[in-house]
Amino acid sequence: MRESFTEKSKLLECDEKKSRGNADFSCQEMSNSVQEVLPHSPEIDNKKMLIGVLIVIGIAISWVGSTQLAQSAFSADFNAPFLITWFSTSWMSAVFPLYILPSLLRGIRIRSFYRECEAVFGTRGLQLRTVFQYVGPFCLLWMVTNFLYVSALGVIPATDVTALFSSCNAFVYIFSLIWLKEKLAIVKMVAVTMCIGGIVLMAYAEGFNGPNAVGVTLSAGAAVGAALYKVWFKRIVGDATLGQVSLFLSCLGLLNTVLLWPIVLIFYYTHYEFFNWGNIPWKYLCGNAVLGLIFNFLINFGIAFTYPLFISLGTVLGIPINALTDFVFRGAQFGSCKIVAAFSIVIGFLFMLLPTETEVVLREIICCRFISK
């Protein structure tokens, strides 16, 4: 993905025969060289763009809907974030069947297709041992991350939670520097600073010692957990195909359903979570699970049909939609400090989406200014 900037020496060539008066010429030459090295943007396909817009809207609406429904489930008689998380994650087992359904309807042979998908579990393929080996740790991390996210919804508004969770990309970059040997980039470091600054500012707005600070901590913890999941998946599994990801997620959902239900009972009987078995808000839980399934489906498979940038923009679009929903239906008020914090996180998120070429151009501009002096 990254291009080696092989003409760096050519761009920086400023020998003694070029005086201070020729610095402007050097900068112009540098600018022309950068334009030659950077690839030209491909012609945008209108159909792909239209599909991308529809997927962006779908991602934003499904994320907002699942978040709002999860928050609506909380009441004086129901406070069970783990039950919500477990129930919603169980629905992830439907991802692979939904993925292969079109192929089955077209009469495509599934055997070779399935063998390609199960390669995500190594040379042994899909076995009980490989499921525990590969999916087990990710299932635990997935559950902890989503448990923190849902728990935060019981403390602070959904807008705050989604804004704080959007700092995930900043933590992805930090962990990539450590484990994936990502190159240090000025733009991305600025983005990390803005995201972390937004988190601190949000905590300040909620009051560092107040109960809402717990919600900020839970949201930030969920962002860190999601970042760990992404980087760890990249390190362990690598570049998986869409079919492999769908099979992996289905196994994750099944493993959660079969193994983690005792935790629901433990939390219930220890009164860590409280709810009435006969009065569980199933309409909110089912709505959250369905929209969560749609959200993950669009996230994981939308990239095959449109530009990856659109997929990321869908989550950013969810922040203002959540804010509007909280304001209209929940009467939430947002102070200037919160708005600045959310804006800082969103800008940092968008900076993370800038292509690698932006870093190259930025370095050359800085170098150009230095030469001009």
UniProtKB/TrEMBL annotation:
InterPro entries: EmrE-like (IPR037185), Solute_c_fam_35_mem_F3/F4 (IPR026505)
Transmembrane segments: 49-70, 82-105, 134-156, 162-180, 187-205, 211-233, 245-269, 289-319, 331-354
Keywords linked to the UniProt accession: Membrane, Transmembrane, Transmembrane helix
Protein known as: Thiamine transporter SLC35F3
The organism's taxonomic lineage, starting at the top: Eukaryota, Metazoa, Cnidaria, Anthozoa, Hexacorallia
